[in-house]
Amino acid sequence: MSEDIESQQHELLALASIYDDDEFHRNASAQGGEMHICSELPPDFKIVQRKGNKVKGTKSEYNISFLPLLTLNFQLPPEYPSFSSPRFTLSTTWLTRAQMSSLCRRLDDLWEENQGSVVLFTWFQFLKEEALDFLGVQSPLEIIRESKVSMQGSSKSSEKEVVEERLIRKLSLQLDPRAVMTVVPHDDILPQLLDFDEAQRQKMFDGKVFCCTICFTEKLGSVCLCFKECQHVYCKACMTEYVQIQIQDGNVQCLGCPTPKCSAVATPLQVKQLVDEELFARYDRLLLKSALDQMEDVVYCPRKSCVTAVWMEPESTLAICSNCCYAFCVLCKLAYHAVAMCRISADQLCELKNKYMSTSEGKKLLEKRFGKRVIQKMLEDSFSEEWVDENCKLCPHCGMNIQKQEGCNKMTCTFCRKYFCWVCLLPLKLDNPYRHYDSNCRLYTYDPTEPTVRRRR
């Protein structure tokens, strides 16, 4: 075995012992392998994406801890490390080809500086610890979504587009062929950056040990749940029992962090990890219903066999259920009655009156629903009926409402001219109506403290 081959074997064995399988993979059939380098970011590193121009456009900002991997594929020629450099390609999803070409040239420079010695570890450390500074990548990192530029050119192209096309062609001649793009140039890479950062955070979390403050047991993060808003951690066993009870009771809005006075809430994805499919389906259904209940333009079909959510048409009281095709009024929930006023029961009228008299907001809402004149007429009739009920009694002969203004309890109906007693509402004889008060009227009763003594009510 030559000295170069022996050096290669020692270097590959050393790399395999230093890095885990996620970072270094050696090819079984050749002198080569693949390195996956995760760039180390400083705390509070941000990425920014703009939509539109800088004046009128919008800006989205995100905190991340990890950027997608740089992948270095290499092959070791027989003359390495004495005379030849490793053959390699460099790829990633978030850097431009121009930036990756700069990194390729920097790797060549490092080989020149260390010619005759193994260089893979030096390359790895540079890409992991110094690549961002070398490229001038700082927080906030602006992610630009490239716009499509016609490479063919046309008579309709503007002068600016022609200049951009020439610049791209000139730049492409200076790009290093070892720099490989692993994403379509015009795709939006922001979701890929956020997904990778989330996956790496979860991987780091799974390897740590946390103490659950419910069962006071230390467990690995892989069997724990972390609330994203507050970063409080509990074991999944405790949280599963807690979440199951809440969903069974219908309290889908109460799946919050158990820490007192903490307002963080578990995400649907976290809930799905804790419960079975049947219970999650109930949670999903109740959560949707709760969201619909808070929307002002959604009403439910009044048929008990249907109860489907229905979108209301703006400025209309008509709603048609998409499930059973029932057309109903969104105000009274009865069959649609066009411009006719909604039918209101006595209990509903009493409730409307209290609501109308309580707050100015309720008054405006009811006037908008029924019309000011209509609701005022309804209230006047209601007050009149209440006064009649409190101050009048029905004649036992004809049923006419009679009001007593003065005099004794012998009443004469103004409609049928017959006599009746105001106290017990019994008819009185025409020949001698006052005889009723000698013994027959409930006007007299026994005093419970003195049973032998009668007294007037």
How would you characterize this protein structure?
It contains twelve helices and 22 strands. The protein has 457 residues and is an alpha+beta fold. 36% of the residues lie in helices and 20% in strands. The chain has helices spanning 3-18, 97-113, 120-135, 159-173, 190-206, 236-248, 268-274, 277-293, 346-358, 360-370, 372-391, 436-439, and strands at residues 24-26, 32-37, 40-51, 58-66, 70-75, 87-92, 141-143, 179-181, 209-211, 218-220, 224-226, 233-235, 298-300, 309-311, 318-320, 327-329, 392-394, 401-403, 410-412, 419-421, 444-446, 454-456. It is rod-shaped, with a radius of gyration of 42 Å. The protein has four domains: 3-146 and 166-184, Ubiquitin Conjugating Enzyme, CATH 3.10.110; 207-293, Zinc/RING finger domain, C3HC4 (zinc finger) (Herpes Virus-1, 2-Layer Sandwich); 346-392, no CATH class; 400-456, no CATH class. The strands form nine sheets. It has a five-stranded mixed beta sheet.
